Amino acid sequence: LRQQGLNEIANSDDLKNVNDIRVKLLGKKGPITNVLRGMRDLSAEERPKVGKFANEVRDELQQALEDKKSSLEQALMNAKLQSESIDVTLPGTPVAQGQPHVIQQIIDQLVDLFIGMGYEVAVGDEVEQEEYNFEKLNLPKDHPARDMQDTFYITPSVLMRTQTSPMQARMMETHDFSKGPLKMISPGKVYRRDTDDATHSHQFHQVEGLVVGEHVTMADLKGTLEVVAQNLFGDQLKVRLRPSYFPFTEPSVEADVTCFNCLGKGCAICKGNGWIEVLGAGMVHPNVLKMSGVDPDVYGGFAFGLGPDRFAMIKYGVEDIRDFYQNDMRFLTQFDQKG
Ligand code: PHE
């Protein structure tokens, strides 16, 4: 039986055949199983001898089957490798590569600029407590300026932040002023209950800036805004400050930059008197400092809030803010930075 089995295995030449032989020799109805099953009829002396021998035969056949199987598989693989070939010089299939959204590009550029000037970047939450969005920014309940920022409320005291300014309060509260001034920017999304049109969107972006320390002046603010404007729009730009009003800054200003040639074709947005308004800013109001635990007799600072959406519109002459949010690839790919 052993010799016959080994011969059969040696002569078989495909995997199915090897499997058939395995079933025939070693299967439940095969001769080996039969011998092992018959053991109980044998005498006590015979039993170990027969058992040992049957096991040896079984192991040997099993090993032969395994070897045959792997050598057949190896042969199959070799044949396959021989018949197939890959031309590694053929051009590949192009993979479409994504790009940061144009607004994200502006935010990234600003973040890089400010990190270079030693600012920290603080990302706040879009769901904010009313207390931080308003009260701690010197806007008590029923303050008329709350109307300027029509708000999505989640509960009576929790809302979608209408501005990134709450991060001013949060950062001042946690900053250790004995270690030096606080310099931070905070980019992110903000929400207002506006009806969407060419210049309004219920969701848009802001980058908040805040510097609080011992000798911070309005000249520092103007110089910083000049760096921002020149970095984004061109080094020839001038910045001017006009008086304005925000509850959390005193004095408050609006910053304009001189007109520049957007997209080399003259900027549609830049009509009129040669200046474009770009952002709101001011010196941090003493009440705001106090509410965040900062002594206004020792420390002072400036803050600004700018809108990357507006910056992108100005920079590229985009006339409808909704274009940024409709995900039309023909629009978005115009701002690709490839190549
Ligand atoms: N938070 C203000 C706004 O959304 C902008 C601003 C920020 C003004 C910081 C002054 C200082 O309109």
Which key features would you list for this structure?
alpha+beta; 10 strands; 339 residues; binds phenylalanine; magnesium; 11 helices; single chain; seven-stranded mixed sheet; three-stranded antiparallel sheet
Description:
This protein is of the alpha+beta class. The chain contains 11 helices and 10 strands. The protein has helices at about 1-10, 15-25, 30-35, 45-85, 100-115, 130-135, 165-175, 220-235, 285-290, 310-315, 330; strands at about 120, 125-130, 155, 160, 180-190, 205-215, 240-245, 250-260, 275-285, 300-305. The protein has a 7-stranded mixed β-sheet with strand order 1-5-6-10-9-8-7, with helices on both faces. Strands 2-4-3 form a 3-stranded antiparallel β-sheet. Helix 2 (about 15-25) runs antiparallel to helix 4 (about 45-85) and helix 5 (about 100-115) packs across helix 10. It is elongated, with a radius of gyration of 39 Å. The model has no long low-confidence stretch (mean pLDDT about 90). Phenylalanine (PHE) binds near residues 282 and 304. Belongs to the class-II aminoacyl-tRNA synthetase family. Phe-tRNA synthetase alpha subunit type 1 subfamily. It catalyses: tRNA(Phe) + L-phenylalanine + ATP = L-phenylalanyl-tRNA(Phe) + AMP + diphosphate + H(+). Its main location: cytoplasm.
